[in-house]
Amino acid sequence: MNDQRGSGQNLAAITNENVEAAYARWAPIYDKVFTLVMKPGRQAAAQAVNRLGGRVLDVGVGTGLELPMFSPAVKITGVDLSNPMLQIARKRVADLKLTNVEDLRVMDAMNLEYADDSFDGAVAPFVITTVPDPVRTMDEMARVVRPGGEIIIVNHIGADSGPIAMIERLMEKRAEKLGWRPQFPWEIIGDWIKSRPGLELVERRRLNPFGLFTIARIRKVQGDPTA
């Protein structure tokens, strides 16, 4: 697969095969490694979903760490490319009796198997840097969300300069093994919103710890903005 190009910047090339292999390795230890550092981001995503209500698609649900954070009144469908991660999510749903989780299934975020306008919202916690084609993934989320609904993205946005940017550049060389891209400019999301007349950015803010993560809420104000 060629390098994904966005906003004039090259992203490390990753494939679905890279992602599946990486998260098969991560699955047994994922919760231990990432629960604390990503908790504020998942909480922010869940709060946005709970305010929205209705039926929501959780894209890249992984091991389901955010599932207990959703209101019981919100109906959740979760999809993920990694079956080992989903197996942990299914156990979490069963153990915690999360009856509002309607379905968890293996699915490619770049090819969602749902009709247009199927959901009141779509949430993607820490996912957009893991997919081979971020723009196509966001287009798919926008397609399946009804007009008036929201696309909620929480993710690390790459630093422009300084020691963190240097570390990210070094880590980017191992993107295929990691299963995500440490360097990811906001412009990929921002330019996508600007290029889709049916979308508007309603919130963008940095989150703890140390502003490493960003939440973006995008409202779908009219029919399919990707058409």
Write the layout of secondary structure elements.
Blueprint: E1 5-6, E2 9-10, H1 16-26, H2 30-52, E3 55-59, E4 75-80, H3 83-96, E5 101-106, E6 119-125, H4 134-144, E7 145-156, H5 162-172, H6 175-178, H7 186-194, E8 199-207, E9 213-220
Parallel strand pairs: 3-4, 3-6, 4-5, 6-7
Antiparallel strand pairs: 1-2, 7-9, 8-9
Entry keywords:
single chain; 227 residues; alpha/beta; Rossmann fold; seven-stranded mixed sheet; two-stranded antiparallel sheet
What does this structure look like?
The protein has helices at residues 16-26, 30-52, 83-96, 134-144, 162-172, 175-178, 186-194, and strands spanning 5-6, 9-10, 55-59, 75-80, 101-106, 119-125, 145-156, 199-207, 213-220. The longest helix has 23 residues, at 30-52. A seven-stranded mixed β-sheet has the order 5-4-3-6-7-9-8, with helices on both faces. A hairpin with a 2-residue loop joins strand 1 (5-6) and strand 2. It is 37% helix and 25% strand. The protein has 227 residues and is of the alpha/beta class. The protein has a single domain (5-220), classed as 3-Layer(aba) Sandwich (Rossmann fold), CATH 3.40.50.150. The two termini are 25 Å apart. Residues 1-8 have low confidence and may be disordered. It is built from seven helices and nine strands.
